[in-house]
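Note to self: the last two entries modelled the partners one at a time, which told us nothing about the interface. This time every component goes in together.
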Amino acid sequence: MTTPLNLRRPSGARAFKNSLATFGVWAAVAIATLPLLWILASVTIKGAPLLFTVGADHTIVCVDESDLRVPTSQCGTEEDAKGGTTRADGLRWAFPSGGKHVAVGEKVNLYRVDTAYPAADHIVYVDSDGAGEARFFSLQWWTSSLGNATSKDSQGGALQAIYGTLLLGLLTAAIAVPGGMLGAIFLVEYGRGTRAARVVSFMVDILTGVPSIVAALFVYAMFITTFGMKRSAIATVVALALLMLPMVLRSTEEMLKLVPDSLREAAYALGVPKWKTILRIVVPTSFNGILTGVVLGIARVMGETAPLLILIGYAKYLYLDPFGDSMGALPTMISDGISVPDGDAGSDRVWAAALTLILIVMVLNLLARRIAAKTKL
Amino acid sequence: MSKRIEVRDLDVYYGKFHAVNQVNLTVQPRTVTAFIGPSGCGKSTVLRTLNRMHEVIPGAYCTGQVLLDGTDLYAPGVDPVAVRRIVGMVFQRPNPFPSMSIYDNVASGLKLNGERNKQVLDEAVETALKGANLWKEVKDRLDKAGMGLSGGQQQRLCIARAIAVKPEVLLMDEPCSALDPISTLAVEDLIHELKESYTVVIVTHNMQQAARVSDETAFFNLKAQGEPGHLVEIGPTEQIFHNPTQQATEDYITGRFG
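The predicted structure of the combined assembly is written out below.
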């Protein structure tokens, strides 16, 4: 007697549990991705315009004797403004500082009291309240530093911060990549199973768990308190390298471990010395993975804020010297700009800086992919 | 371009484990010698001691002598790297370098040992690929990845890579065990041709293969698992397969065990 095979789909409680599991997976995906997409979208929407445009240099409005704004038409037209003449006594043209949000009847914080038309690129003749939103195409964001622009100004770029971030990232990589790779090569190729390797591995584990602010404080205590050095980009780089080194080391180690021993043996059997085997066979074979780890490390380090706050002053002007005591960087530009009142002309700079940071990391990633694709046969 | 190998009183250890006990054998130049025997009997281990490849495994060492035309490979001051330039090796699984093209794979031994002359490399690659019966198949795609070839082609690529550095001896550790019958045939034909200019030692699990390709056969055995392996007998293949002097050899050959 044979029992018929049960080949039907599960139903009832079993089916419910299955669908619940499926739902759970999708919910987890949504929870993980939606906030990310939301952040990306808001950063892009608010920040993107600043990357390629600038606001007006000045707005011109009409004020009375007590510096209260009156409707612009009482002073006259744009032609009158250029001529410096007004159509009514007691009224004059004025350039308010950060004047885009000065309402009629509000006291104008005068930027310039003379009525001579200023020589500047972009002037918006404010005809109605809340004007001055006009933006003009410009690469100022990339080509000039923030300078003395305040939160009321819509001018000003981020060159100093972009330069600082790139320099810090590059110098950090210059220390952490060779260090991390050599460490990984030691762990995988030379030290396997030895006491020294266990010690190194343990140290790296500890270093991985060090919060960035602690690394910064360590460098501060050592270089600045103990040896009396100045705060500088170099000190920051040391702290950042402490954070990046274990990342590069661990990812490189994993990649080197993936290289099959048969390849090493093949090279040895050709009479190739060990160091050359590592350099020309093992590392090239795992090159793509190592590169990915390096790029991730640089991305993480570029966004690191705590060491910058402790070890270097934030500068609004472009300082090239890595030994100087202040330098702009995108994370500190964000933390510096976040206190700006919402609605000010410069309030979107933090978003633009964030977007710039994301873009730099993205470009780095694409570059790495391009290099990786080229090395692949 | 071929040398006589003499192994005298060879004992191999992996750490505390005694893997091979007292091996004495002679391999004549320009012959193919096959090592056969059950798993764990130490035939691969003995093969690896012929170019000191066993030293790659941590803790492995050996005592005794391996003489290559009278020169002891284990004499003090002998560089294992230099030994491996003279005694090449082909492994069980094809292992072309994945980051290299076919050309670079074959040229790798020379390139990594400092040869930069393009003309020399070109000639060496062509000679080696022709020697490995692979030239016709790959001559139009030398710049393609070595990993893109079929298993049998990859193995012949590895043989080409091994002979490109012009070794005196070629060791083969079960070179066909990962290959299909057609590829196996191609490699076996190749071994026959390699015999003209190299001393070849081949480890194989396949007794028919040993009978087909070798001039001499050495049978290794072990008393029990965990015991060291030893050489039972070595002699002309014809004799080992038809008229062995040892009972164990006959049992193994006739399929009574192993």
